[in-house]
Protein: Dihydroorotate dehydrogenase B (NAD(+)), electron transfer subunit
Amino acid sequence: MAGALSKRSPRGVNHSGASAEAERPRHPISNDVEFADRKVGKRMISESTCAMQCRAKVISLATLSQENYRVRLECPELAQVILPGQFFMLRSPDRTDPLLGRPFALYDTYLENGKPVGIDVGFHVVGKMTALLEDVQPGQNLEIWGPLGNGFPELETKHLIQVAGGIGYTPFVAVSREALLQKKYGQTQRTGIRAERASLIYGVRSACFQANMDDLSDLNELDIQICTEDGTAGHHGLVTDLLKPLLESGSADDQVVLTCGPLRMMQAVSELCSKYDVRCWASLETPMACGFGACFSCVVPIKTGEGSWDYRRSCVEGPVFPAKDILWGDIS
Ligand SMILES: Cc1cc2nc3c(=O)[nH]c(=O)nc-3n(C[C@H](O)[C@H](O)[C@H](O)COP(=O)(O)OP(=O)(O)OC[C@H]3O[C@@H](n4cnc5c(N)ncnc54)[C@H](O)[C@@H]3O)c2cc1C
Ligand code: FES
Structure:
């Protein structure tokens, strides 16, 4: 955490000196009352209450682009309950290195005879676990536990704008399908995300890192806008260059932005949304050790009221937070 935070008060006490819990008894991720009043956010806490641990069989591995892959895992119990924006931990049962599981977002579920029987994981190779995943063979087992985290809120909007950077686009496959009524996730009573129109702004460093959009090719209604930092595909520039005209083209009440990707990209998206008074939720990719709330390795500073803040565990109270509540400058 940045130095500014280390001078502040200890966990559980806000910097105005009062107990954050006493001052604001509601769960901090219910901070979206303002959003709820504007009839877009109903739920911030997952309806799936129990995470499960199981062995998942590798079904297939596909290449999405340079260093980006999709692995398909058979795990019906998890596939039937997991929601867009939730995640799970993965590790190899046959090894102690890496010892800890690694968090991955739901990319999509896959169905057999109309029922979810497994999940797809989109990943970018950065280190030990993802290098192992790059080499998995069909039939091999992985240890998986989930669903974890809150997922994106149930919401209804005229225009859903998803802004992704790099591998941060993975949650938006399931979100787009749900929003455009193409697929249901989780339990049947869930309303989920609903949008009259959906856009995906997807930025990468260079064209070679841009995942092919084959897994979304059947979603004709989804407006996909690509940008690259080096101009090798799509717009030459940043995701915010593409977001700004979209925000300007509609009314704030009719738009909702969801974002996932590099921290500073999400901060820029959040600041732009604040400027246009558009509601925005961010899915943080905070490094995690346990994934279920025990180790506090994943805490992030979140506003808990006027002038006060406290740490929240990204794995339990997140990873999705109202972007306006995240103290972006205090996350390193
Ligand atoms: C809720 C959540 C969902 C995620 N979903 C996905 C996903 O769908 N696909 C995907 O590819 N990745 C996802 N990530 C990131 C993923 O967990 C890390 O890339 C993964 O832990 C790397 O494991 P590794 O063993 O390969 O790398 P490691 O050997 O653990 O690390 C390699 C390098 O990457 C850095 N690193 C590791 N994790 C992070 C992180 N979270 N942020 C910034 N730097 C990091 C390390 O500091 C190190 O320098 C998600 C993270 C979170 C918290
Ligand atoms: S990862 Fe352990 S508390 Fe969040």
In short: Residues 76 and 113 are 12 Å apart (CA to CA). The chain has eight helices and 16 strands. Confidence is low (pLDDT under 50) at residues 1-48. Helices lie at 3-6, 20-23, 33-37, 76-81, 128-134, 171-179, 239-249, 263-275.
